[in-house]
Amino acid sequence: MNLEEVLNFRRSVRRYDKNKPIDPEKVKHCLELATLAPNSSNMQLWEFYQITNPGLMAKVSEACLGQSAASTASEIVVFVTRQDLYKKRAKFVLDFEEGNIRRNSPKERQEKRIRDRKLYYGKLMPFIYARFFGLLGFFRVILARTISLFRPMMLEVSECDMRVTVNKSCALAAQTFMIAMANEGYDTCPLEGFDSRRMKKLLKLPHGAGINMVIPCGIRDGNKGIWGERGRVPFDEIYHRI
To answer: Where is the signal peptide, in residue numbers (predicted)?
Structure first.
């Protein structure tokens, strides 16, 4: 399939054929492709949990409020946000960038670029992603709004804003995964209806982790899992060329 065919094939499938298993290695490869998704400052504050154990899948299905997409799935993938790993991921990106600059930048510009990356990932990212009962976020908002009086400045820097940023990046990875799965002829259904507390307990996640999306996977059971035609708001109503 070409890209247009893949996008038309992908539907939110809510019932899967249990007699048609999917290949766990292909699902894993689709998750590898998901890591190529764009994400804010390349911080990659995500984790992917591919669930194939039948016992655990049953418990996850229960945590998904018993939805048929989860209860009939061959596998379930949980996309997890890990804002709590911001220091570790910032260090990883900084270490990578230092080598990347030395390998690919003109020698006369390398030292400045490395200094810039050290400032960005060594100081700014830890400051932006840090959390402390909302107080750090409040301070960042005041600082950003003050700076914006004199020059353009990103204003969405509260602790709530950064949580949104992390979830947006993770959602891009989830969408990339679903497109990759469609290219394999596999079906998915992104779920936001679940008990996040129970889900975190099942996956043994720390307090600082969050559940972004739960995606049951399988092969559609004929037309039983697709609720009729795909409905979209008329394009002219949402498209603006200025």
So the answer is: none
